[in-house]
Design a protein that fits this description.
Distance between the termini: 7 Å
Largest sheet: 4 strands, antiparallel
Strand order of the largest sheet: 1-2-3-4
Strand content: 15-25%
Shape: globular
Length: 153
């Protein structure tokens, strides 16, 4: 049983390269309930997009006009949720390809940033890196759950 528990526990963490390869980040996955809560904002935005794309009149509407139906508030809601998740899950950084790790804290406001104490404003992370982190935090939950379900003692 120890080998299965070890395998599951290892899936609770992820590492990825960010800031154009200058920094490696490490963090934990979201718990299933955290992932479910985070998914609500994603699903809301995606369903709104799907609804605008699937109307009968949509065949006569340009892609740009369809995007205009998504409000700035939708985008900000999704962005705020994504930033919350990043602040929850990212906890370590490495400059040496993961040979050594230091504690890293992501904060919501630029005024809270303090490089001397390894505190970084989440707003400094590119959208591409944010998306990659968010995906790691969400996908790994499914992998861990699948491993647990496949365990046969």
């Amino acid at each position: 049983m120890l080998s299965v528990l070890t395998e599951i526990a290892e899936k609770a963490r992820w590492n990825l390269t960010a800031f154009n390869g200058k920094l490696h980040l490490s963090g934990r996955v979201l718990s299933p309930i955290e992932a479910q809560a985070a998914g609500i904002a994603s699903k809301t935005l995606i369903s709104r997009m799907a609804a605008t794309m699937s109307t009968e009149e949509s065949e006569q509407i340009s892609f740009e006009e369809k995007l205009e139906k998504i409000t700035p508030e939708d985008i900000l809601t999704f962005g705020a949720m994504q930033d919350r998740v990043l602040c929850q899950v990212v906890d370590k950084a490495s400059q040496d390809d993961g040979a050594s790790w230091e504690k890293l804290t992501l904060v919501h406001h630029e005024a809270q940033q303090n490089p001397a104490k390894n505190v970084l404003w989440v707003g400094m992370i590119s959208q591409e890196d944010k998306n990659a982190i968010f995906e790691k935090a969400m996908i790994s939950v499914k992998e861990a759950a699948d491993s647990a379900e496949n365990f046969r003692g």
